[in-house]
Specification:
Radius of gyration: 16 Å
Order of helices and strands: HHHHHHH
Largest sheet: none
Distance between the termini: 33 Å
Structural class: mainly alpha
Length: 176
């Protein structure tokens, strides 16, 4: 049986759970989305990255930088180099599972600059989670099933973090 070609991301924008996630993202402000995204990847993707031999330092620094920025302790211009380091580290990662986790981490940290990344990181995070759970030789159907479950977790996580009736929601053009 030939091994399936691994996708860098799992899921699609037309999936019902992803659609719900998109609608909820549209109701939140950039700060809420950024805090939620870094909390999610710190809990879910950082452990996957380290379990597969990835260097967590640039991502941990970016996560802490985003948290410091949100708390008013770090100006955006001082955060940007940390985001760039995380992005470079994600590009350098070669293990497929660690790479998916690294990309989820990097993209989530950049939500503070690019609110659409609140959706983008989830596609990498679902891949990292599915490949971590099932290994790298499963069928596309197995990965899709695991991705569906992870999108439900991501949606539930944002539902828990969401601010009801947020007065200043992000303005997003999805382009997808």
């Amino acid at each position: 049986i030939p091994m399936p070609k691994l996708r860098k991301m799992l899921g699609s924008a037309d999936h019902p759970t992803v659609q719900k996630l998109m609608r909820l993202i549209e109701t939140q402000n950039k700060q809420t989305l950024a805090a939620w995204a870094v909390d999610y990847v710190a809990a879910h993707d950082l452990p996957i990255l380290t379990a597969h031999g990835g260097d967590s330092a640039p991502f941990s620094q970016a996560i802490e930088g985003v948290r410091a920025h949100l708390a008013g302790r770090l100006p955006l211009k001082e955060l940007k180099p940390l985001l760039k380091e995380a992005s470079n580290a994600a590009r350098a990662e070669t293990d497929p599972i660690a790479q998916a986790a690294a990309r989820a981490l990097s993209v989530a940290c950049a939500v503070i600059q690019t609110p659409t990344n609140a959706l983008g990181f989830s596609f990498y995070s679902t891949a990292a989670n599915a490949y971590h759970q099932a290994g790298l030789t499963e069928t596309a159907q197995t990965y899709d099933r695991l991705a569906d479950a992870e999108f439900e977790n991501i949606l539930a996580s944002l539902q828990a973090a969401a601010v009801p009736d947020e007065p200043n929601p992000v303005k997003i053009d999805w382009n997808c």
